[in-house]
């Protein structure tokens, strides 16, 4: 089971699956006069849409450089987009070709717009709902082999409850949320307890994934966000910080004691940080408890034990998940990031070259994803 793949959205997905009254807020893919396709909202370009080539990250940079220099696009988006990038049936055929049984499917363009739409909560939730309705279609067409990931925010509790009802009815079991504060509140804030209970009651697992969401560092640390840059170097260096901070907050403030059925996934946010993080998590908790004379909250277990029992982390092959498992424990998941350029079209071979064997490491190759799916 692949814990991290992506499904491209069609040009009209958001409008097609949005309530008619909100369609003026729908995201869309539109072409400019030079043949470049853009993710757009309210007539403004948010991000350049490109067709990734697994293992060829430079192709994205070349596409952007052509656009910056005013040259016509080297390809037409619709002609270059393989069926396996966006059609559920074609993705199943690709799984068969590379020897995979099942895959978790995150959005593609859905990783690029959450922070930019955050000024309008109705627009934010309307576009999330549109994707979530498409997830229900993918789940039905996937025949148990495709596991689409919904897109949720904790900013509107009533809306969240409605979405979780719909997702549970459609058997969609994973949902991407931001690993940052919610309108100034930490994830462990008591106001969020009913929402964590709702995730558990509906059998939906929240997942942190790399995305353009609220930042945990001040904006001064980042360059201005031009629409033609896909990612900032600062964010790439510190991919691990948002989930590490969020999970520290949730663990030390007792959220897992209050909600023992809650699970979390961490995907495409690297994994090499986990051993040192767990060392610091226990060490800092012990030290500050002695220093301050009291813990942050009375916990029934060691902080690291909550992570090991309730959190599962995708680990790229180059991070040596076998060595990480030996150091830390069986919490890691196989992933390809297909079809993104930083991903791979040969996932099983990549892991085998790192000494990872399917029979010897069932947690890496399927059991840990099963745990997040509640199976």
From TrEMBL:
<dbReference type="InterPro" id="IPR032466">
    <property type="entry name" value="Metal_Hydrolase"/>
</dbReference>
<dbReference type="Pfam" id="PF04909">
    <property type="entry name" value="Amidohydro_2"/>
</dbReference>
<feature type="domain" description="Amidohydrolase-related">
    <location>
        <begin position="129"/>
        <end position="374"/>
    </location>
</feature>
<keyword id="KW-0456">Lyase</keyword>
<dbReference type="InterPro" id="IPR032465">
    <property type="entry name" value="ACMSD"/>
</dbReference>
<dbReference type="InterPro" id="IPR006680">
    <property type="entry name" value="Amidohydro-rel"/>
</dbReference>
<protein>
    <recommendedName>
        <fullName>Amidohydrolase-related domain-containing protein</fullName>
    </recommendedName>
</protein>
């Amino acid at each position: 089971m692949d814990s991290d793949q992506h499904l491209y959205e069609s040009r009209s997905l958001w409008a097609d699956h949005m309530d008619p009254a909100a369609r003026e807020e729908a995201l869309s893919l539109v072409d400019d006069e030079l043949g470049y396709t853009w993710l757009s909202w309210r007539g403004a370009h948010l991000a350049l849409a490109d067709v990734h080539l697994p293992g060829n990250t430079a192709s994205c940079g070349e596409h952007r450089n052509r656009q910056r220099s005013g040259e016509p696009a080297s390809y037409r988006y619709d002609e270059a987009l393989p069926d396996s990038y966006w059609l559920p049936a074609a993705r199943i055929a690709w799984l068969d070709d590379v020897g995979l049984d099942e895959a978790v499917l995150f959005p593609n363009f859905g990783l690029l717009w959450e922070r930019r739409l955050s000024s309008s909560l109705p627009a934010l939730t309307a576009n999330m709902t549109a994707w979530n309705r498409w997830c229900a279609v993918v789940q039905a067409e996937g025949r148990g082999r495709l596991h689409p990931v919904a897109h949720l925010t904790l900013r509107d509790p009533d809306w969240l409850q409605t979405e979780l009802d719909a997702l549970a009815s459609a058997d969609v079991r994973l949902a991407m949320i931001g690993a940052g504060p919610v309108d100034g509140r930490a994830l462990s804030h008591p106001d969020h307890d009913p929402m964590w209970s709702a995730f558990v009651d509906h059998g939906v697992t929240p997942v942190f994934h790399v995305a353009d969401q609220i930042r945990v560092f001040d904006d001064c640390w980042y360059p201005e966000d031009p629409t033609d840059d896909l990612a900032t170097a600062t964010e790439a260096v510190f991919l691990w910080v948002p989930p590490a901070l969020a999970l520290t907050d949730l663990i030390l403030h007792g959220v897992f004691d209050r909600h023992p059925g809650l699970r979390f996934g961490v995907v495409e946010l690297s994994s090499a940080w986990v051993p040192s993080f767990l060392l610091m998590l226990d060490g800092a908790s012990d030290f500050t408890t002695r220093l301050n004379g009291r813990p942050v909250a009375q916990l029934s277990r060691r902080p690291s034990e909550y992570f090991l029992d309730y959190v599962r982390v995708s680990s790229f092959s180059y991070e040596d998940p076998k060595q990480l498992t030996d150091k830390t424990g069986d919490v890691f998941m196989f992933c390809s990031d297909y079809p993104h350029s930083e991903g791979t079209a040969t996932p099983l071979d990549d892991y085998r070259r790192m000494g990872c064997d399917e029979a010897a490491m069932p947690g890496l190759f399927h059991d840990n994803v099963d745990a997040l799916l509640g199976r």
